[in-house]
Design a protein that fits this description.
heterodimer; A: alpha+beta; Potassium Channel Kv1.1, Chain A; 3-stranded mixed beta sheet; B: alpha/beta; 14-stranded mixed beta sheet; 25 helices; 16 strands; 44% helix; nucleus (chain A); SKP1/BTB/POZ_sf (chain A); Skp1_comp_POZ (chain A); Elongin-C (chain A); ELC1 (chain A)
Chain lengths: 118, 639
């Protein structure tokens, strides 16, 4: 029952919450992108639904919020930080690492410090 | 007050009421209160009396005897009692007069103090004590109710002693200390919050982020935001759980950046199953914290500890004992380690060491230690010795025997003759993938020739702060070099230094026209990072011919042109055209760059924008490369 890839995809949390959001926003995450890639032929790609056994509803909601926030500010500069409740931070960090946000702009603190101007 | 219980308790006689009982149980006695009241009243009267006397200070000051005589003596009963009574009265009078004198003096001192603003202190004979008294008195005067008096608290109605620090309640009355504290606590937190909301620091932060390449365009990654948030709330974190090691390392870097890496937070990063520990600023760690590191994680292979001020001999001994698997060791500013302990490290743990990075060692680590290292660490692949003050040319000779070296970074403070460096390259150059030679002022073209002849695998090459190597030497190095294209090239500050002749000699010294052309021809296809800061003899013609818009440098992402005086708007436009992958251009001190329109995805740092003095300019989404170039052509044409 292979479906066409739709504009909207569904993300399901471990405790059963479903979040429907735009494909373009969701695929910012490397992991979600690969899961939904039609070429990979995963179940997720066929059903346009990703189930995350290790992310609960609260965290996934925040993730979805971020995905849209990121989409919204894609071309802006000086973007204000999203509000993240401190108690969610570590869980969200785990989820973010798992989902692999696109192009982690790694700042090389060390290299910056070492290549000081003369 | 101290004698309140035993003396007074005896005076209460007869049946006691329930109230008296209760008061007594609570260490309060009615007698005491009454006595206190009387004493206070008396005092107030005395004070008033003293002030009256003060009105005629001359009279009061005249003579104690006189004052005593004036007191009417009661009729004598017996000589003894009379004498005693007279004595009492005398004493009292003397006390009164003394008090009057004191008050008088204080008044005088007060006046002096007022004058003292003009007059230097100590011009008169009054002592410091009196000044202190004055100060205290001034404070007394300012407090509205007389301190020392009792007052009922406005909030809890408890009786308390008024002090100069007593707070005013919401109704305008006085409140006791506990209630005052509560009031302060309620009012306290709201103030700093409102201060934080100010706009300026925020903007500064944003600019700083741009300089760090943090946010060129679009939002930060979720990881980045979470990590910063965690750092903000570091004091609430109890443990990090099983965060992946890569994330933990990033967290560690941010903790260091925010200067919150202390003994408590450091422990959050320790896990027995980790094979690496990286603390980039150990300034707040104590000796025992280092012990904790190696006790908790004995399996570490990679140890990065920078600014290890408290890393002592005993710590090193403990590390040698526990850290049997260490292959990667980076210690910066570990100045408390003795030479003998360095020797011991190499002797006992040298065999496994593959990477050693030492920096900022002033007190120890001599040439012999380097020799010891070479003897006992045959497997070293990566070596960095920078700013180790005590090593010199003999160390270079020792390093020449490390045949497995692949990455070598040196910055030696002492003088090193060029032939030693040539010898070093001759011995280890063949395998080198990274070569960084900073501040070797005596190196000349023979070194470049040696590198040309020996090195085949270099990807990162740095030769900075030198004024001997000539442009021709650089050109010869890159011409037909059998080495693969470089990925990173840094030739900053290779130039002639002669204040009388700023343009340099006829035959250019340092990387100049020919050298730059040869470098870009050799490495242009792969080069990612180019640093030619302060290569001031590169001409405008050389820049425009190298970056002419037709030649393409597909990988070049960052370029530093600072203090290259010949760079102008045309050169920058050419660079933008020739480097499609460009992300960052640093151009401090290039005063000919004007009116650059920075295209999307590029940051230009260092060129002041006349309008609002912003140092960096970030490309806008709506400015494509062509549009930017078009705009610049117009601007240049107009000028």
């Amino acid at each position: 029952m292979a479906q066409q890839s739709t504009d909207y995809v569904t993300l399901v949390s471990s405790d059963g919450f479903e979040f429907k959001l735009q494909r373009s926003a969701a695929t910012v995450s490397g992991a979600i992108k690969r899961m939904l890639d039609p070429i990979s032929n995963f179940t997720e790609a066929q059903t346009n639904t990703c189930t995350f056994e290790n992310i609960n509803g609260v965290v996934l909601e925040k993730v979805c919020e971020y995905l849209y926030y990121n989409e919204k500010h894609k071309n802006n500069k000086d973007v204000p930080d999203m509000d993240i409740p401190p108690e969610l931070c570590l869980e969200l960090l785990m989820a973010a690492d798992f989902l692999d946000g696109e192009s982690c702009t790694a700042v090389c603190l060390i290299s910056n410090a070492d290549t000081g101007l003369v | 007050m101290s004698n309140r219980r035993p003396g007074n308790a005896n005076r209460i006689r007869g049946p006691q009421s329930a109230l008296t009982d209760f008061l007594a149980a609570n260490n309060i006695s009615a007698q005491q209160i009454r006595d206190d009241y009387n004493r206070r009243r008396q005092q107030a009267q005395q004070q008033a009396g003293a002030d009256d006397e003060d009105a005629q200070p001359a009279a009061a000051q005249e003579d104690e005897e006189e004052a005593a005589d004036d007191v009417p003596a009661p009729p004598p009963t017996t000589t003894n009692t009379r004498k005693r009574k007279r004595k009492d009265v005398e004493d009292e009078a003397i006390a009164k007069v003394k008090k009057g004198k004191e008050v008088d003096k204080k008044k005088q001192a007060d006046k002096k103090k007022q004058k003292g603003k003009k007059k230097p202190k100590g011009s008169d004979d009054d002592s410091d004590d009196e000044y202190d008294d004055n100060l205290a008195r001034d404070m007394y005067k300012k407090a509205p109710p007389a301190p020392g008096q009792l007052e009922n608290c406005e909030i809890c109605s408890k009786r308390f002693t008024v002090t100069p620090y007593t707070k005013t309640g919401p109704e305008g009355g006085l409140v006791c200390t506990p209630c005052g504290k509560e009031l302060a606590a309620e009012a306290g937190p709201s103030k700093p919050k409102s201060k934080k909301a100010a706009g300026r620091p925020r903007r500064r932060k944003e600019e700083s982020n741009k300089m760090d390449n943090l946010s060129i365009l679009g939002a930060k990654t979720l990881q980045q935001m979470c990590i910063e948030k965690v750092a903000d709330h570091h004091q609430d974190v109890e443990e990090f759980g099983d965060l992946p090691q890569t994330v933990l390392e990033r967290l560690g870097e941010i903790f260091t950046k925010k200067r919150i890496m202390d003994p408590r937070t450091m422990k959050l990063f320790l896990r027995p199953d980790h094979d690496s520990i990286a603390i980039h600023d150990c300034a707040k760690l104590e000796t025992e914290d280092y012990h904790t590191i190696f006790a908790v994680s004995p399996h570490v292979e990679k140890v990065v500890l920078r600014n290890t001020c408290q890393f002592k001999d005993e710590t090193m001994e403990y590390m040698i004992e526990k850290g049997t698997k260490i292959t990667y060791l980076q210690l910066y500013a570990a100045n408390l380690i003795s030479d003998a302990m360095w020797h011991k490290l190499f002797q006992q743990r040298g065999e496994k060491l593959e990477t050693l990075k030492l920096q900022w060692l002033d007190a120890s680590f001599e040439d012999e230690a380097v020799e010891e290292m070479v003897v006992h660490c045959p497997n070293l692949q990566r070596l960095k010795l920078k700013l180790c003050r005590r090593i010199g040319a003999p160390a270079i000779d020792s390093i020449s025997r490390l045949t497995k070296l692949e990455h070598l970074s040196l910055r030696i403070s002492q003088e090193v003759p060029c032939e030693r460096l040539v010898n070093l390259i001759g011995n280890v150059g063949r395998n080198l993938r990274t070569l960084s030679l900073e501040h070797f002022p005596d190196a000349d073209d023979t070194l470049l020739e040696a590198i040309h002849a020996e090195c085949r695998n270099l990807t990162k090459f740095r030769l900075t702060e030198n004024d001997y190597c000539t442009d021709a030497g650089f050109a010869a190095l890159f011409a037909d070099w059998a080495n693969l294209p470089l990925l990173s090239a840094d030739f900053s500050s290779t130039r002639d230094i002669d204040n009388n002749n700023p343009d340099g000699p006829e035959q250019a010294v340092g990387l100049a026209d020919q050298g730059l052309a040869a470098l870009m021809q050799h490495s242009g296809t792969k080069l990612r990072h180019l640093d030619i800061a302060s290569c001031r003899h590169i001409s405008h013609a050389a820049f425009t011919s190298v970056f002419d818009g037709r030649k393409q440098y597909p990988a070049l992402g960052s370029i530093n042109l600072s203090f290259c005086g010949n760079v102008d708007t045309v050169v920058v436009a050419g660079i933008l055209k020739s480097c499609p992958a460009l992300k960052k251009v640093i151009a401090f001190g290039c005063f000919n760059i004007e009116d650059v329109v920075v295209p999307r995805g590029v940051v230009l740092i260092g060129v002041p924008k006349a309008r609002d003095f912003m140092i960096e300019q970030v490309g806008m989404e709506w400015v494509g490369l062509d549009a930017a170039l078009g705009a610049m052509v117009e601007a240049v044409g107009a000028a």
